[in-house]
Amino acid sequence: MSAPVFLAPPGSLTDVSPGMRYLLDGPEGRHAAVVQRRETGERIDICDGAGIRLHCVVAGNASAGSTAGAAGRGGKGADTLAVDVQAVVSEPAPAPIVTLVQALAKGDRDIQAIEAAVECGVDAVIPWQANRSITRWKPERAAKSHAKWVDTARAASKQARRAWTPPVDQLHTTKQLAARAREVVAAGGAALILHEEAASSIIGAPIPMVEQGTERPPIETTPVNLLVIVGPEGGIGDDELALLTDAGAVAVRLGPHVMRTSTAGPVAVALLCQRLGRWELPPGIASNTASHAASNVALNATPNARPDDAPINQPAFPGADG
């Protein structure tokens, strides 16, 4: 089972090295020490949202034991967790940068889209004030609404055990989005508009960093953007579609069914991440999974197996049945 992740401020882990003691304080320290009651000897990871991951073992709260020379902001007491750093991993920045352009939607469906998309692997988020968006970010509430999106992305990246937290850009109008799409395409990226009347599928859409004849990205390529544009409940207007396609964006169809705005983005992100090879399991995990699946097959094929030995519908992955 993967270790739970707790978040540190961006850039705060650059001077941490294996063998050091680190103090996790603030809201994250309280959540680990008081809410979850993490105990001595447990494994946790601490990430800064900018690619650095600390593999740690809990040493206790900062009020117990020596914390002299410990890294962190120096908090003490029951709300601060002391951990021993076992390893420091610097995870490379994602490339291409898969960016979800999510139109504002009513009923927090846009928030639902952001949460699921971050868990699926999106790298950045752009809020879009589409013409048909029922929800509007009024000037006096724009900062609060934007902060809610930022908090959602942060919480989702923590849930997904990610070392990189997707940034949330400022609210874009359609004209600003068209200008952004034009810049992305000019730099070698791509902008895909999810549209129910599109003639081509997202599966075959050209995406950056995928060599011809393969779905694997080259090893060394300058990171570029891949925009995924999702409209609001009422869809993308014809004038908006024309403006975006004139800027170089391409309309694609997600599938045979019409999805809600809260669902379309995450599904598109998952498909693109699969094409980019991001969902492939590391060798160790892959071999364990294959062994687990083979055991299930052998067990289900065993004659006279008792029902209490193992259910026939046992999933190959723990928790895969929801």
Low-confidence stretches: 64-69, 216-221, 284-322
CATH architecture identity of the largest domain: 3-Layer(aba) Sandwich
Order of helices and strands: EEHEEEEEHEHHEEHEHH
Q: What level of helicity do the residues show?
A: 25-40%
Strand content: 15-25%
Sheet with the most strands: spatial strand order: 1-3-4-6-2-5
Can you summarize the main beta sheet?
6 strands, mixed
Total tally of structural domains: 2
Q: Distance between termini?
A: 16 Å
- Provide the CATH superfamily of the largest domain: SPOUT methyltransferase, trefoil knot domain
Task: Tell me what the structure shows.
The protein is α/β, with parallel strands linked by helices and 322 residues long. The chain has two domains: 72 residues, Ribosomal Protein L25, Chain P (Beta Barrel), CATH 2.40.240; 179 residues, 3-Layer(aba) Sandwich (Alpha/beta knot), CATH 3.40.1280. The chain has seven helices and eleven strands. The strands form two sheets. A six-stranded mixed beta sheet has the order 1-3-4-6-2-5, with helices on one face. Helix 2 links the parallel strand 7 and strand 8. The longest helix has 19 residues. The two termini are 16 Å apart. 34% of the residues are buried.
